[in-house]
Amino acid sequence: MGQSVPRCCSATMAVVFSAMMLTGCGSIIADHLPTAAGGLPEDGPDRPTKQSSFPAVHDLPPPRASTVLTDAEQKKLEDDLIVARTRTGAAARAGTRDD
C-alpha cells in the first residue's frame, strides 16, 4: 500500500503537467479541429496577421520631458489667468472685444 500512494501522486502530476502543456497549444489545435469537435467554423474569420496597435497592459509610457512647475511659476500662471479672466469679463460687460 505504501507504493500505491507515490504511483497515484506521480500519475496525477503527469496528468496535470500534460494538461498544462496542452493549454498553451489550445488555440493552435482548435484551428485544425473539425467544427463538430470544437474547432473553428468554416466561415469563421481568419486570425489577424498583424499585432494589435494597442499596447500591452504592462507597457509603461515614456517619462515626461517636462518638469513640474515651481511654486513661483505656478503663482505667476494663476495671476496671469486671473488678469485674463478679469479683462475678458470687463470687455464682455462693456460690449467690446479685446483682441
Characterization of the model:
This protein has about 100 residues and is mainly alpha-helical. The protein has 2 domains: about 1-40, no CATH class; about 70-99. The protein contains 3 helices and no strands.
Describe the SSE topology.
Layout: H1 4-23, H2 26-32, H3 71-94
Kindly estimate the percentage of residues that lie in beta strands according to DSSP. under 5%
Q: What would the average pLDDT be, to the nearest integer?
A: 77
Shape estimate:
elongated
Q: Biggest sheet, open or closed, and with what strands and sense?
A: none
The chain-level structural class is: mainly alpha
Q: For the CA atoms, what is the radius of gyration? A: 33 Å
CA-CA gap between termini: 96 Å
How many individual domains? 2
Individual helix count: 3
Q: How many E strands?
A: 0
Unreliable stretches (pLDDT < 50, length at least 5) are none
Helix content: 40-55%
SSE string, helix = H, strand = E? HHH
Brief description of this entry?
This protein has 99 residues and is mainly α. It contains three helices and no strands.
List keywords for this structure.
0% strand; elongated; mainly alpha; 99 residues; 3 helices; 52% helix
